[in-house]
Amino acid sequence: MEYSEKDASDNLDRAILRILQTEGRISNVDLAGRVNLSPPAVHARIKRLEQRGFIQGYAGLLNREKLGYDMLCFINVTLQLHQSQHVENFKAAIQSMPEVLECHHVTGKYDYLLKVAVRNRKDLQRFVVDRLTPTPGLAHIHTSLVLSEVKYTTALPIDESSAEKNAS
């Protein structure tokens, strides 16, 4: 969804979004102070942003390593057939796998890119051999292990100049 002039008529909505995506637990009063509005006005703007789908939800970001998920992997998958029923079956299978954090339909050599978190090498083996490989319609699987995360963020680069470009 892109910004439009109607959706973001001023910089206040963008400022609220910038703050909320990095400080999701900020109090309404503190947020209001940061954007120089009254708490009721900030509350109304947040509700409007939620209703329009700019804010999809709220979540706590967990440290996967502290919870024992030491291995992060990216798995490229190619399907044998691209008929709609096969694609839908694959999507349903992936939705039921809690190890899969993200699944993206991509261009290039592979059809899908999965981001997978497991506890260790044995869990990875069980996931690939016992869960992923038996999924009907898979042609190829290519797994890459993450050695280290160079950058991790969930924050979008919301700034005034990019929002203004999208508004036109």
Keywords, please?
168 residues; 18% strand; Arc Repressor Mutant, subunit A; Alpha-Beta Plaits; 4-stranded antiparallel beta sheet; 2 domains; alpha+beta; 4 strands
What's the short version?
The chain is of the alpha+beta class and 168 residues long. It has helices spanning 11-22, 28-35, 39-51, 84-95, 121-132, 160-167, and strands at residues 71-79, 100-105, 112-118, 138-145. The protein has two domains: 11-60, Arc Repressor Mutant, subunit A, CATH 1.10.10.10; 71-145, Alpha-Beta Plaits, CATH 3.30.70.
Fold and architecture overview:
The chain has 168 residues and is an alpha+beta fold. It has two domains: 11-60, Arc Repressor Mutant, subunit A (Orthogonal Bundle), CATH 1.10.10; 71-145, Alpha-Beta Plaits (2-Layer Sandwich), CATH 3.30.70. Helices cover 39% and strands 18% of the residues. The chain has six helices and four strands. The protein has helices spanning 11-22, 28-35, 39-51, 84-95, 121-132, 160-167; strands spanning 71-79, 100-105, 112-118, 138-145. A four-stranded antiparallel beta sheet has the order 2-3-1-4. A hairpin with a 6-residue loop joins β2 (100-105) and β3. α2 (28-35) crosses α3 (39-51). The longest helix is centred in the first third of the chain and has 13 residues, at 39-51.
